[in-house]
Design goal:
four-stranded parallel β-sheet; alpha/beta; about 10% strand; disordered N terminus; 16 helices
Length: about 425
């Protein structure tokens, strides 16, 4: 869905010295999205297109992307911000897009983290090179109003279903790909699932959730696989580098090339984490407001759907279900207080504990360099976790512009050497 550059005058409105995306631009502007969620954006962007927006996920990579980001973002600020801004600028300079009819979109959680400054960082970079390009914010924390997508309750509902489906596809793929008899069968199964679910999301067939879940499970279960066991490696950490192939140097692909099974926790766990933190704040500090009942309703609805998804997966029998979020909360309570919510906070040690309990005690904790909340909640909890799970094998890996892929992979290989030795002893 790319557009060639055209010599047209920008037609955007400016407010507080930056361009504002108005409803009138909806059918004229192409919205660019950074490649953050490769398992989920295929479906989430389909929901947005159904609302009449034109949207494209960026897949540009390479050192030139990082260098573009470094021109405008300090190395110590936030590596994910640097990657996102680098992707935007590299794409806008590529000549593929009409920069006078292009906008960019960023998601934000609004937590106590430098990620809450993404809007200002992106606008500062664009003002220097493409001042006519608007920045849209997709957030539910009131960070910015009047300059984002128009989201109805129906759209939010379809977002939730798209995330559940994306989580299940990711989980089934990672449990199938390492064992496939014919190379490419798992990728083909993924494509079939995505195509079918795009139609389902268009049709708004929410009542067919159970049928769609079974379709995903059956599609991957039909892939011929080898009868063998492999080392399982969990991936936890900051939300961007945890999922983004640009941010984590294609970590999942690397683990597959090392003959391992990647285990990546569900995105819905992070969504539930963000929702329940609002409820925890009221419990810990008071200050109930009009949004509190809405957060409570959202939490209970999402959690019930997650439980239903896991029940269907367990009954199917072929694939291990994803983590139960209430169990994650109990795992966190054994290690760290749920009031520790900066960045990914208590969710990181909770996921590491849950992974260890389900046979994935070898873990890569992916962190952006200088991300203090995640270093504290991630690295800081390692000692306590190792006391609780003796065979836990954790390697924290920093991702930043100066870290080479070779060094990152060598650190992971050292962890894998221990993992393989433990695996050999367990299976002798």
């Amino acid at each position: 869905m790319s557009r060639k550059c055209e010599k047209t005058k920008p037609t955007v409105d400016f407010s507080d010295d930056y361009p504002v995306f108005t409803p009138a631009m909806k059918r004229e502007y192409l919205i660019l999205v950074p490649d953050m969620l490769p398992w989920h954006f295929d479906l989430l962007t389909e929901v947005i297109r159904e609302e009449g927006y034109m949207i494209e996920v960026l897949h540009n990579e390479g050192r030139q992307v990082i260098d573009e980001g470094l021109k405008h973002v300090h190395n110590d600020t936030c590596y994910p911000a640097l990657c996102v801004i680098g992707q935007y600028l590299d794409a806008l300079k590529s000549g593929k897009y009409d920069v006078n009819k292009t906008a960019v979109l960023i998601t934000q959680t609004g937590g106590g983290c430098r990620a809450s400054n993404y809007l200002s960082l992106i606008r500062k970079a664009l003002k220097a090179e493409f001042p006519q390009v608007p920045v849209l914010s997709l957030n539910f924390a009131g960070l910015e109003k009047g300059n984002g997508l128009q989201l109805t309750a129906g759209v939010l509902l379809r977002f939730a279903y798209a995330i559940f489906y994306g989580d299940l596809i990711m989980s089934c793929f990672n449990q199938t790909k390492p064992y496939e008899r014919r190379a490419g069968d798992s990728d083909a199964a993924r494509e079939r699932c995505v195509c079918a679910l795009r139609n389902a999301l268009h049709g708004r067939t929410f009542k067919k959730f159970k049928r769609n879940v079974k379709m995903i499970l059956d599609t991957f279960a039909a892939v011929p696989v080898l009868d063998e066991k492999k080392v399982k490696v969990g991936i936890v950490g900051e939300i961007y580098v945890k999922y983004s192939p640009l941010g984590n140097s294609h970590l999942e692909e690397f683990l597959l090339s090392e003959n391992c099974e990647p285990v990546v926790p569900a995105l819905m766990d992070f969504i539930l984490y963000c929702v329940v933190n609002n409820l925890n704040d009221v419990k810990l500090y008071g200050g109930r407001n009009a949004a509190t009942p809405l957060f409570r309703i959202a939490y209970h609805w999402l959690y019930r759907k997650q439980k239903k998804l896991n029940r269907i997966t367990l009954a199917h029998g072929r694939y291990a279900p994803m983590h139960d979020f209430e169990h994650l909360r109990k795992c966190a309570d054994a290690v760290i207080h749920q009031g520790v919510k900066m960045g990914e906070g208590w969710l990181i040690p909770a996921e590491m504990a849950a992974l260890a309990e389900t046979g994935a005690e070898n873990i890569v904790c992916a962190q952006p360099f200088g991300c203090l909340p995640n270093h504290i909640a991630g690295k800081g909890a390692v000692r306590v976790l190792k006391e609780k799970y003796e065979r836990m094998n954790i390697v924290p890996v920093d991702y930043d512009p100066s870290a080479t892929k070779v060094n990152q992979e060598n650190r992971i290989k050292l962890m894998l050497a221990t993992a393989r030795e433990n695996f050999k002893q367990e299976n002798e």
